[in-house]
UniProtKB/TrEMBL annotation:
Pathway: Protein modification; protein ubiquitination. This is BTB/POZ domain-containing protein. It comes from the Eukaryota. Signal peptide: none annotated. Residues 206-268, 348-417 form the BTB domain. PANTHER family: BTB DOMAIN-CONTAINING PROTEIN-RELATED (PTHR47457:SF1), OS05G0345500 PROTEIN (PTHR47457). SMART domains: BTB. Pfam families: BTB (PF00651), F5_F8_type_C (PF00754), Methyltransf_FA (PF12248). It comes from Carex littledalei. SUPFAM superfamilies: Galactose-binding domain-like, POZ domain.
Amino acid sequence: MELVEKKKFLTVGQFECAWGEEFRFKEAGRGCISFEASAQNDVTLVFREQIGSRHYHYKMDNHHNYTIILGSHRNRRLKIEVDGKTVVDVASIGLCCSSSFQSYWISIYDGLISIGKGLYPFQNLVFQWLDENPRCQVQYVGLCSWDKHVSYRNINVLPLEQNNNSLWGKFDYKGLEERTSDREGGDYRSENILTLRDFCENWEFSDLVFEVGYDGKAVPAHKLVLGVFGEIPCNLVEGRVFKLPLVSYAVVRAFLEFIYTGRTQIVDEEVDALLKLAKQFKVSSLIKQCQKLITRLEKNRKEVFTYSGANVEIMNDATRLSQSGGFPFETHLNLEKLKCFLSTGEASDVNIYIAGYGLVARAHKLILSLRSPPFAKMFTNGMMESSSSDISLQDVSPEAFSLLLKFMYCGELEMKETEMSPLLLDLLLLSDQFGITMLQRECSKRISECLSEDTVCPVLEVVSWVPSCKSLEEACKRHFAMHFDYCTTASSDFVSLDEATFKEILQAIRNFLLIFLWQQHPEMTVTCEEKVINAILVWCMQANEICGWAQIDDVLRSSDPAQLFGERISLLDALLHFVRFPLMHSSLLNKVRSSFYVLNFIYLLPIHGTKNERYQHRRSCYKELQYICDGDNNGVMYYAGTSFGEHQWVNPVLAKKIMVTASSPASRYTDPKALVSRTYQATCFAGPRMEDGRNCSWWMIDLGQDHQLMCNYYTVRQDGSMTFMRYWAFQGSMDGENWMNLRVHENDQTICWPGQFASWPISGPSALLPFRFFRVILTAPTAGDNSSLDLSMCFIELVGGGGGGGGGSGGPHIHGRAGGHKASGTFFGHYSGRILVLAALSLSPMFGVDRNDDGDVDWDLLDH
């Protein structure tokens, strides 16, 4: 079985089933499993008493089992089978897209099977079925597939408890659960939170009165609640009083108690009267339970049916699956009806206005109070809003508040944006303001998933002031630190961060200096100490534009530091302690020494020629590879072939260190291993394929799941053909699907003869981003004798550092002719014979570059 499990992710091969102790209910016959699935065919789950085999098939099982099949796009049907016999086969939801994951949950409670769709269990129920002869011993869950593999992730097996509030503490939100401590702002799900039970026979927010019996006893109720569970009679749509002279108070009380709490007790002789009242309001769940009870009572009669006068209990099936974990109601609500009440404003008792916008919704105080403790206090503690039918909110986004209201009514965030947007941040702040914990968690999760180097600063600036978003704040700080170079050079947004946040980020990068990210041991990265100094000085200056060390140094010599840095000058001392000066070149240290003399921070710098104990545990931890010429042995592809310096070179594709793929199928002349074989190939090309409605050709490099590269130079070699590429792009990706252009070539005439090498630098912010996948993609037909869409190249090499030893014009460096003989070529910009390139590799053990006694790189080793 193809089984890959990482962070709760697994893939099940064709006609196979995955089992495990981790997929076991805590209590036999009672449990819930939530998961995300991606499949080209049906998603099948089996529930049985014992673990099944790898090639398990439920049709051949002699033991009790439930099999639930979520139909794919082929049939879009839902099936439930008991012991191999189909008991349910209905049109239902399907996995409409095999390329994306969709969320589901399935629960079993004493034969009651509930199936829902969405991120959170016990919400968005789509189907329920009750087994009259329950298989109460099932406890193991098998994840199965048919003729296509199925991918599962975020699999959680949860116990079904009497109060499912505790389930949310056990559910895996990828580290983004908001803790329930006082330090994180408090979780509003406390003992004092209101539930629907609290409003049973309560005059608060009541808009309907039952006059019961001949004495007209008044019993309060709510049209909204009755309308959600059933239907309000036509004569009550506008009226307020409903007279029931022939119905006893006990019957009305049982009727309301069942609706508001999901269970009730009544004397057996009044069950018929309760059934009539339920039919009058069309409460289908109560009608069903009363009919079952009457049938059971009739079976117990002997010759003449007589009432025993005993109390009988009536309970809604859905009550056993309390939704209080996601929605503070103890019975199952029809959320579609609830959404209709919000959209139509029927039975509303409060108009919500937003300053500068006007009326945003006609809502219901009962729902707002159930979902939001602040709203509950507003409407019930004698404030002006308690008696008013209008409330006005200040400084609130109308779009965000509309989404918040919809979530309060249906428990689902109706927001389809897949990218980070200001609206999501507004919604996060609103959910915190009104104490809607579940919405806050959902917003935090989505923000975390959309987090990027360009959005982390605005997000961090907002959430750092929200005590209940500590987990999201920590995730942002980690992301910032891991991409420190990019976040501090692409824009000046980071200068808005507060002192404490900026210090924590500096502390995070203090002990790490990695260019290559080793994903099994993620580390914070910064390429050089000069970047840290620049970031500190720009932050203290609160500059609107990014400026380098040279500009800052010039300004320091002609300006008053107190005027330049303002109120933040007092923070310079503490922040500069995070810089590891001994790792800097002596030439740069001398410049720093000069400027620091102006700033009176000269004492921070190490004394030349002495050892500073403070820095003994911190060493340079990257390998410096020297780029000498095209086709040399100093690139990443070559180094991967040596297992990063551990043995003699072998083809890295054959050694399975990297993977090379082409746009066309592998063949004699489309050979992935030939592209990195380091030998001249007379014919080596990738043919075209159709992608997104257009033909394109490409070669792609996959560094493997444990490696990423910040590439800022790449080299290719033309094969022996005369078809030269002129329009192409060099791209990077993290997943092999979503690509970023690192360099785009338009009518590039660089390659003009067979066997020619050519290299190009990658500059700008994209050179600071790590990627796992790289590809060269042809965007237009080639030039030459036979113009075509074949991408002809027989060599590629990637390196990870900017050029040194000469002025850089950004043009290519070209060497060599057919057969690999060294020859002078056309140069764009000055070339001094050596270019220092830092290959973005994390090496174990790590090696530092050789330096001379003055602390500089020993260039004599490179002059060969």
